[in-house]
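S.,

As promised, the copper (II) ion run. Input:
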Amino acid sequence: MRKCFLASLALLAASALVSCGGSSVSGSSAKGFYISITNLAYSPLDLQAPPGATITVINNDAMQHSVTSEATSGAFTFGSVAGISFDTQPFTGTVTFTLPAGAANGTVIPFFCTVHRNTMATPNAQITINSAAQPGPAP
Ligand SMILES: [Cu+2]
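Predicted complex:
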């Protein structure tokens, strides 16, 4: 009787492990705050993200791009808005950066690509700090 009970416990533990793996939110289906770059175009052009959010940037092109903040749209030089700045540096693949936890709601930070500047298909894109923004599915 006791042996049977122990065997049942072991089975329960094994199935719990399996269901943990199945419900994992890691991988490409994880919700988050995403900027993708495809054929020299950023998407979305205005990402809404809350203070402290981690931004995942996915470069689908073979060439390097960057997501680099600028003080004003079209400046094409590194800058900050209300103390918020970021620069992924030129990269391929996927990188992340984190917005300041103290970023003020409503702040708009334009960004550009240091490699292609005004020759990007979408030279002018931005992040808007929105405390109510919710993470979305991976692009
Ligand atoms: Cu670029």
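The mean pLDDT is 87. The chain has one domain: 29-129.

- D.
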